[in-house]
Write a structure and sequence with these properties.
Blueprint: H1 27-32, E1 34-40, E2 44-45, H2 57-70, E3 76-81, E4 84-89, H3 91-100, E5 104-110, H4 112-126, H5 133-146, H6 151-158, H7 162-170, H8 176-184, H9 189-192, H10 200-213, H11 217-236, H12 244-257, E6 261-265, E7 271-275, H13 280-290
């Protein structure tokens, strides 16, 4: 999602638009120690120590086409070195801009001291106990994408496992509604992670259950699977499988009535219950039980 309230440039520092200023704990320091300029491509040089050395020509050409049509939507990040500016983040956009034939590119300019201060501030904030998971994920994204760190580098700096860093950063792909609910209701990463790729319908059906009933991660995953199966069945016009909850009630009816009970769902969410009896005696017994 696009960040709000930072103005052009500062609102799109992170590639893929993962950072929302509502959760960015160092946004004020970022603005205070940086400035946005239009810089000539010839005044910019790549960082020789940049770990990424290979760039797909096909992807660069595709990005160049986009830049010709829309311009550079996300500024690169640079530091001043002598008469040149060295790229900290955004070499791919810089290279594609050269292919596109444009003369200047928007760039966030930081000093080395400001760069170090912001990095230290982010790391300190990540290690705070009162930082919520979305703010933590936002800080990871800034460390990774603005300082050319790998997830392994970030993990080492903050004392976490690389898997933990990756899983937490995935929360940034949650819809805004889910992010704010996660913070407001103190929901866990485990409960919310299954919703990362959920449809709006799934989110609307499941989020209240997590908030009001404390659904576990396993139950959330089961509900998503159930809804997907129903949706697939509706598309294919076939009968969906029974949910675990429906199966439980079917077994309870079987035990209470003492006869075979079948529950058949249809693709529209309805269905029917079939109660089988072998003879007139069983039928009369069922009638007695059901009409009490």
């Amino acid at each position: 999602m696009a960040a709000r309230g930072l103005g052009r440039g500062f609102g799109s520092l992170i590639p893929d638009e993962l950072v929302d200023d509502a959760f960015d704990v160092t946004k004020d320091e970022d603005r205070a120690n940086s400035k946005l300029l239009e810089i000539k491509l010839g005044d910019i040089v790549p960082d020789e120590d940049q770990p990424r050395r290979r760039f797909s020509q096909e992807q660069l050409e595709s990005l160049a086409d986009s830049i010709r049509e829309h311009g550079v939507l996300q500024p690169i990040v640079v530091i001043k070195e002598g008469r040149k500016y060295k790229i900290v983040a955004g070499e791919r956009r810089w290279r594609a801009s050269q292919i596109a034939g444009i003369e200047t590119i928007p760039a966030i300019v930081r000093s080395l001291d400001a760069q170090n201060r912001l990095e230290l501030s982010l790391i300190e904030n990540v290690q705070r106990e009162d930082l919520n998971a979305i703010e933590t994920a936002t800080a990871y994204a800034k460390l990774k994408d603005q300082f050319n760190m790998t997830t392994k580098d970030v993990a080492k700096r903050v004392g976490k496992s690389e898997a933990s860093i990756i899983n937490t950063m995935r929360l940034l792909h949650l819809p805004d509604e889910a992010k704010h609910a996660m913070i407001e209701h103190n929901l866990t990463e485990g409960q919310m992670r299954p919703l990362i790729n959920a449809t709006p319908e799934q989110l609307a059906a499941i989020l209240p259950g997590i908030i009001n009933e404390g659904w576990s991660a396993r139950k959330v995953e089961a509900k998503i699977t159930e809804m997907r199966n129903r949706s697939k069945a509706l598309t294919n016009n076939t009968r969906p499988p029974m949910s675990a909850e429906a199966e439980k009630y079917t077994q309870r009816m079987h035990r209470k009535l003492g006869v075979d009970v079948k529950v058949r769902a249809n693709a529209r969410g309805g269905g029917n219950i079939v109660i089988k009896f072998k003879n007139e005696e069983e039928f009369e017994k069922l009638c007695t039980i059901l009409t009490k």
